[in-house]
């Protein structure tokens, strides 16, 4: 992914208010504390859950479901995006220290919905967007049972079960995340970058970058890159999408001015691009990442298989009512046809059986992706 083209050098000397002077380098102590929670992609393949026997795909699916649970509860509670981001970071950090797999000996592992509920409760207090305990528990019960109109009161068993789960496991969450509650928000850093380059009024660019950060909260990006890198990646992708040129300053590109590596920005963008490509499209929503020809090819292949079956049935019916001499002639033609096919495949260097098997596997894999 190429960097966004820089504008003319004359734009780099634009006078800025005192509040928008060149950003300072991140505090060394805070940056070092944040790096303690940054992992490599290889380390993500050796989380406690995976070590205990869970597959990497299943572990990522549990993470996605847990963060989606946080988002649904947050919408019903009308929580800010900052609170939801904080809860998502707590959730991902917890799973880097604790396992989702039940062991034969010892305490039973928490369900990913239970972890998400505790993270929401803690995030509302940290971000000072507190809600009453009853409101949180009622919404969690409704989301967990996928019934937004569920009647929940203090007399139901589900209410007390979820309430006790949250209160009893808050200490376990704090211990797992080492009481590190302060989280640098990429949203604020992104807005500061846009404001520094006087692009905060650009609604399209601002919304594109904001969407990138919100989507990244549903992934493991928060434990792969620092918040400043995520914010810069959001600005980078938004500038490319909106075709906005961010000016150089003093002979340095904008990412160096913001104290971010271009290599890390591209890694974050490529990671999110891979997530977008793998995300299944909901029914009734047009998939802008998959060409329409895929569906047409799939329909054509199914129709061709149907026609081939009909032809076989017709040929079998004719063979039953034909004379013995006609059957022998037909068999001779079929053998000649098979021999000609063998000669063709031999000259091409590809076996018909192998190619057919490969095509069947591709069709089967495509159908499996659609069903999922």
Automatic annotation (TrEMBL):
Keywords: Cyclin. This is RNA polymerase II holoenzyme cyclin-like subunit. One of its GO terms (biological process) is regulation of transcription by RNA polymerase II. It comes from Pseudovirgaria hyperparasitica. PANTHER family: CYCLIN. InterPro entries: Cyclin-like_dom (IPR013763), Cyclin-like_sf (IPR036915), Cyclin/Ssn8 (IPR043198), Cyclin_N (IPR006671). Residues 68-175, 188-274 form the Cyclin-like domain. SMART domains: CYCLIN. Residues 359-372 have a biased composition (Acidic residues). SUPFAM superfamilies: Cyclin-like. The keyword Glycoprotein does not apply. Residues 1-21, 287-372 are annotated as: Disordered. Residues 7-17 have a biased composition (Low complexity). Belongs to the cyclin family. Cyclin C subfamily. Residues 318-338 have a biased composition (Basic and acidic residues). GO terms for molecular function: cyclin-dependent protein serine/threonine kinase regulator activity. It holds the Pfam family Cyclin_N.
